[in-house]
């Protein structure tokens, strides 16, 4: 198969972790006889520095022509980087938001999974962790507060800022369908998260999700208010299978869920449209404090590459091979610094390695 992939190394640790994902993809291509062609585009701070804007039209066109996009991370330190002195539409995030919108990437899948090998990294008590947890956050990605009209102006002498939260029934329906489709292949439970006790957009969300649920009789649907969900994620994360929610709630809850696993450096993500096209990126950020040190964890990016093979190319066997290789290196005790056990007495059971060695170890096990 020919795989035409556009890479966005981006900022901070992005280039280092994307390099390791490519290493692993190249090994997969060799072993299973595929042809991968890569093209890099700039986005975020790297694009601001080179082109004066966070994403050029040319870069968007290149991404659109690809089969899939593999991204590292974008942005820098929001209090010290000169990028954050620019007007909002010229800052690094604006590039990512524009790309999501231009490519119509409305479905964001963020798995949050507890590796049993990394149980010590989980901040929750053993009785709460139990036999572990495995959830998929399905976040709507191109609507809501992120893309509604906004303004800051003086009204009757008082500076007033407005952000608008809009959802159409069609936008809700298409993400709900994806959520139920995925739940059907998992443990068949959807928790739809909203704030229907206050917001109209949430009441519409609930109505449409219930309509969609009728087409999936084997899937159990429950509704949960977002504040309660934030609490339940630390109280009893085992209860969740698929969490289906709107853009802003999903942004917040997915960070919380990733922290609960104790290892944001392990979590992949996919942003999909109606076709097989997708953008794949680690859930973590650009970590400017450790950029260039060769210590970042490349596993989330490597697992995002596995998601890409699965969702954009239907290469399940190849995706399984990457996931099994990651599992193997963890079982063998290799760890990057972020997933080292906190207690000193547990550290001699594992071996600390850097970014490139972790990439080598995983690709050798494909
Ligand atoms: C994320 C990030 C982005 C978001 C930022 C960088 C705009 O936090 O992907 O979760 O809020 O969607
Ligand atoms: Mg976020």
| Biggest beta-sheet profile | 10 strands, mixed
CATH third-tier fold name of the largest domain:
Isopropylmalate Dehydrogenase
Number of structural domains: 2
Low-confidence stretches: none
Question: In which range does the helix fraction lie?
Answer: 40-55%
Could you tell me which ligands this complex binds, including any ions or cofactors?
3-isopropylmalic acid, magnesium ion
- The end-to-end span amounts to 18 Å
Name the average pLDDT. 96
Sheet-strand content, in percent, reads 15-25%
Structural class of the helices, strands and pairings?
Answer: alpha/beta
At the first level of CATH, the class of the largest domain is Alpha Beta
Order of helices and strands: EHEHHEHEHEEEHEHEHEHEEHHEHEH
Multimerization status = single chain
Number of strand segments: 14
Count, helices: 13
Report Rg: 20 Å
**Silhouette:** globular
Overview of the molecule:
Helices cover 41% and strands 20% of the residues. With 366 residues, the chain is of the alpha/beta class. The protein has two domains: 1-113 and 264-366, 3-Layer(aba) Sandwich (Isopropylmalate Dehydrogenase); 123-260, 3-Layer(aba) Sandwich (Isopropylmalate Dehydrogenase), CATH 3.40.718. Helix 12 links the parallel strand 13 (334-335) and strand 14. Magnesium ion binds next to helix 9.
């Amino acid at each position: 198969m020919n795989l035409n992939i556009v890479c966005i190394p981006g900022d901070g640790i992005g280039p280092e972790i994307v390099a390791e994902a490519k290493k692993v993809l190249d090994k997969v291509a060799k072993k299973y006889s595929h042809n991968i062609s890569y093209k890099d585009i700039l986005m975020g701070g790297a694009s601001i520095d080179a082109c004066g804007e966070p994403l050029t039209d040319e870069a968007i066109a290149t991404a659109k022509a690809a089969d899939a996009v593999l991204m590292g991370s974008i942005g820098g330190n929001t209090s010290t980087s000169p990028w954050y002195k620019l007007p909002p539409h010229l800052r690094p995030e604006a590039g990512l938001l524009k790309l999501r919108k231009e490519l119509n990437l409305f479905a964001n899948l963020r798995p949050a999974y507890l590796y049993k090998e990394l149980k010590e990294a989980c901040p929750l008590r053993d009785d709460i962790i139990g036999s572990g947890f495995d959830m998929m956050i399905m976040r709507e990605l191109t609507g809501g507060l992120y893309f509604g009209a906004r303004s800051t102006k003086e009204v009757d002498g008082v500076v007033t800022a407005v952000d608008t939260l809009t959802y159409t029934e069609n936008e809700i329906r298409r993400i709900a369908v994806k959520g139920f489709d995925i739940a059907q292949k998992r443990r068949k439970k959807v928790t739809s998260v909203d704030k229907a006790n206050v917001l109209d957009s949430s009441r519409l969300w609930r109505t449409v999700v219930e309509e969609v649920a009728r087409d999936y009789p084997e899937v159990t649907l429950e509704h949960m208010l977002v504040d309660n969900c934030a609490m339940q994620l630390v109280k009893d994360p085992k209860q969740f299978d698929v969490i289906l929610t709107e853009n802003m709630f999903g942004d917040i809850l997915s960070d919380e869920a990733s922290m609960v696993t104790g290892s944001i450096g392990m979590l992949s993500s996919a942003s999909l449209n109606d076709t097989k096209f997708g953008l794949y990126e680690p859930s973590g950020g650009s970590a400017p404090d450790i950029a260039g040190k060769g210590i970042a964890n490349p596993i989330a990016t490597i697992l995002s590459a596995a998601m890409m093979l699965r969702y954009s190319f239907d290469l399940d066997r190849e995706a399984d091979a990457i996931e099994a290789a990651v599992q193997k290196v963890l079982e063998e005790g290799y760890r990057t610094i972020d997933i080292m056990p906190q207690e000193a007495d547990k550290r001699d059971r594992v071996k600390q390695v850097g970014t490139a060695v972790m990439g080598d170890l995983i690709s050798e096990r494909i």
